[in-house]
Amino acid sequence: MEPAHAAVVAAHRGFYDSIESGDLDLMRALWLDSPGTVCVHPGGAPLRGTDAILKSWAVLMANVDYVQFFLTDMTISTRPADPDLAEVAIVTCTENMLSDGSARQADGFSGSSAVATHVLVKVSTGWRLWSRHTSTLVPTEAS
Fold it and tell me: Is pLDDT above 70 for 107?
């Protein structure tokens, strides 16, 4: 793995670690502090600005006792460094989530999958989330 990709993967994984541990301070450290940040939760309208995004994650974290992500199908695209432009990385993955959410199964857990796209930008302190868009995968019956 390229060194730049390793740093992108670390920031990307930190995002999921913050959700799993309910660490809003870590979540805050991972987002670019800007009114131009955007986050789209599955089925939701775009949230604009870091404050609105962090508020949404605080609500989610306060209402979920347990969540764990198993990431698959991850791809990373980076734009080569250009002295006039910021470095940007796009990470896509499938989020396979296990939680104790309200839609409980017989064993007390529920699962779901979503496809996520993260756009990260490199700043002086490292890679930060600039945009996140997630879309729930709807299970289909095998033909």
Answer: no
Cβ-proximal residues to 79 (8 Å cutoff; 6+ apart), any chain: 85, 87, 88, 89
CATH of domain 3-136: 3.10.450.50
**Phi and psi, residue 4, nearest 5°:** -65, -40
Quick one: three-class SS letters along the chain?
CCHHHHHHHHHHHHHHHHHHHCCHHHHHHHECCCCCCEEECCCCCCEECHHHHHHHHHHHHHCCCCEEEEEEEEEEEECCCECCECCEEEEEEEEEEEECCCCCCCCCCEEEEEEEEEEEEEECCEEEEEEEEEEECCCCCCC
Q: Where are the domains of the chain?
A: 3-136
Which has the minimum average pLDDT: 52-56, 59-63, 84-88? 84-88
* Global confidence as pTM: 0.86
Q: Which residues are paired to 97 by β-bridges?
A: 69, 112
